[in-house]
Amino acid sequence: MTRMMKNTALMAAAGLALAACGTRDPEAGNSLYGQLQEAVAPAVARVGGGGRAPAQAAAPLSAEQMAARALAANPAPLILAGLESSGATQVMAMTGQNGDMRTYMTPNEQALIIRNGMLTGTKGLGHDLSVAEADGPAALIRARRAGQATRINRYLGGDGVERPLPMTCTVATGEGKSFGFAGRAWSATQVMETCEGGGVEVQNSYLVTASGQIPVSRQWISPQLGYVTIQTIRP
């Protein structure tokens, strides 16, 4: 708890809450890496002092600038998360770890729970993912191997009843990519997870290294929230 409070306070003091403001380049969508990079590239800092005129707002920050500020302000593992439904992009710091399960949190206590790069739950976003049971797809994805598996996403309804969403998933691999972000070089393979079930079709995208790390991904949360793009700042 002490570490969580320290990390959250550091992030709040450094003003790391950020909101996305870019437009989509149609040509970037032609590749998986283009889609993932584009989703977190443009952002603008939220500034305090509610009475300020728009002209006094901070200049837009790139993803690299956001990452540099976060690295300087917080020693914890860090990610950059972009929620496509709201257009918000925020730096999130790891506030807790249980085995290979990590919790990343914003200053206002919105959280992503990630296991070895795979999204397993969210908190504080509304219409949250209670838990994703996805060991089968995760094994294929992290091994960069094509195949079929099942996953179950569970959601808690307003009546307090948990509702499962079982899906059948097909994992396919694509070409390799070398790229850099936040002062770190990566070499990874594109992996796509396409899932269907309950009248829903989902397409999750990952860049996976030879060791099974997932430095960049685009993963589905829920029907209401849609996708979140996650980019590693500090592993």
Automatic annotation (TrEMBL):
Any Pfam family hit: YjbF
Coiled-coil regions listed: none
Record keywords: Lipoprotein, Signal
UniProt-listed InterPro entries: GfcB, YmcC_sf
Annotated signal sequence range: 1-19
Domain of life: Bacteria
Protein name per its UniProtKB record: Group 4 capsule polysaccharide lipoprotein gfcB, YjbF
